[in-house]
Amino acid sequence: MMLLEGKVALVTGAGQGVGQGIALALAAEGARVAVTGRTLEKLETTCALIHERGGEAYPVHCQVKSLASLEECVESVVAHFGGLQILVNNAQEVPLGTLQDVTDEAFTAGFESGPLATMRMMKLCYPHLKGDGCIVNLASAAAKRWDMSGYGAYAATKEGIRSLTRAAACEWGGDGIRTNVIMPHATSPGLKWWVENRPEEAAEFVASIPQRRIGDCEEDIGRFVALLCSSGSAYVNGQTIALDGGQAFIG
User: Fold this and answer.
1) The pTM is what?
2) Keywords for this entry (predicted)?
3) CA distance 1 to 138
């Protein structure tokens, strides 16, 4: 029997990168997956990959910075699949740059698409997740970097997500909802751009990973998320888990 047979999952930002890898891995374990994001063409590509493997997927256009769009998304998914047991908050705009360079607009977008969207989605999905639900939020080890230069604004939005995750775990654990956060290093389009544009920094970064490689979106990140959402992880709640080959020390 597959780990997530009979479950329905909603993954934001699933048109590419880590979100796509998570969607593919959840579907491979039997979950029916709502693939959501801003670009319908990318969502349909992810759904096609799932269908080719014999899985079931449903594309839903969604703007995570819009409460109305999030409401419509959740309503559409529940109506289509008849329920919801897994929520993965992955989508996020990234406000990179030094404190002097990051604009108010970029930081606000990072906040609206990050902690605010995460909180909204958790609250919207809460009634459907009660009893046997699992939430996985995405943060970043950026806040654990040895040199925070250029990553402060991004890390601030991600640390907000970690705090919301811990609160949800404590407040909703008794309702049968587990909430955890992962901090992944993966070969996403954004990371590939970073490697190409900051090769020296990227080389130092990889050298600091004990396993000396960056994770695969599906094999290293997605498959762990599938395990985290399964009954085998039923007592894991409120945790921050780094999927980074041993680089970060959370403390």
Assistant:
1) 0.95
2) Oxidoreductase
3) 28
